[in-house]
Amino acid sequence: MQLTNIIRIKINGFLILLLVISLISNNIFSQNNDEYKIKTVVIDAGHGGKDPGAVCKIGYEKDIVLSIALKLGEYIKENLKDVKVIYTRDTDVFVELHKRAKIANTNKADLFISLHANANESQKPYGSETFVMGLSKTSSNLAVAKKENAVVLKEDDYQAQYDGFDPNSIEGNIIFSLYQNMFLSQSLDFSGRVQTQFRERVGRHDRGVKQANFLVLWKTTMPSVLVEVGFISNPKEAKFLFSEQGQDYIASAIFRAFRDYKESFEKNNKQTYTAITQVAVPNDSVKEKQKETFYSIQLLSSSKQITINNKNFPGLTEVFEKEELGMYKYYCYTITNYKEIKNLQNNVNINFKGAFIVGFDHGKKISAIEVKKKLKN
Ligand SMILES: [Zn+2]
Fold first, then answer.
1. CA–centroid distance, residue 355 to ligand 1 (Å)
2. d(CA 377, CA 369)
């Protein structure tokens, strides 16, 4: 065999080897994608121990939600063998809110479900509602969040654990949604399924999917929801919720919602995976808003362009870039309320020390004071 032929065979062999390596690595890559499945769910029975939660004549919120949590866990274990179920509590014990989130985070849960029952001064309100993190749009949503958050007053050292949060102040409840923003669409998806099951299969009055700031959801790093299964202050609903059958129905409804969510999520896992990793890209509504007058937060400026993604801008979903005199500047938020942007700034400063409030008016950068004058806000 001629030397040139040997070399050619070697080169061909090398190319085949490269091809094989690239096929293997492609395969590894797609396996990684396949692994993006719903594998772990954390079920959080609200309250417990010294904290009874809502109280009515026939019993405590903490008992109803524990029973539903355990039933839900059993349904999942029985029917979805590939899912690991973790409880934040499976007995009548007190668990601090921040520890509940920590349990979910350290176990790398794919979904966090916090279970609660509601109560009102009036006996009239009834029905089920599911919350995701976000600004309370109505005073009644805020009231639910304040009530569920108030438990931190029973915790030792709560101000250190929750960055000085005071559950009795309205300001304290304004903005904690920053961390959860990137999971909003998945949290909303699951919430919608829970409410549909409640309404269509268990005949509960559907109070809808809502947003409010719950401390227990604040620092979870996965899609998270808080389910208010019903009002124990309403005698008829209380009777249902304290009954074995009622709790069974509620648990099976949440199970079916979970099963459907898992199935849909895994079918679309490629798209979802992409959505998670690229969520920080500014969307059209952000660009649209840039025409108006608003406050924003300048995060940093750089001589080099920085990719807008979750790695570079963790937890921020409204980041946009502007080139100014050869420097790339990165901003976050388009807000028209000073109090709100001030709160956001405090949160942003955790990762971006020195981030400061600026203003924009029809695309032109102006000072925060000028925005204040223009918006009178
Ligand atoms: Zn509760």
1. 36
2. 10
pLDDT for 186-199, tens place per residue? 899 999 999 999 99
- Express each pLDDT in 196-213 by its tens digit: 999 999 999 999 999 888
Residues whose CB is less than 8 angstroms from the CB of residue 27 and which lie 6 or more positions away in sequence, other chains included? none
For residues 243 and 199, what is the distance between their CA atoms, to the nearest angstrom? 18
pTM over 0.90: no
- Mapping DSSP to helix (H, G, I), strand (E, B) and coil, where does residue 121 land? coil
178 Cα to the center of ligand 1, angstroms: 22
pLDDT at 79: 97
- What domains are there in the chain, each with its CATH number? 40-274 (3.40.630.40), 284-375 (no CATH)
Ligand 1 centroid distance, CA of 27 (Å): 46
- Please tell me the distance between residue 310's alpha carbon and the centre of ligand 1 in angstroms: 32
Residue found under tokens 């004058």: 373
Q: In 3-state terms, the chain is what percent helix, strand and coil (to 5)? A: 45, 20, 30
pLDDT bin (cut points 50, 70, 90) of residue 178 is low
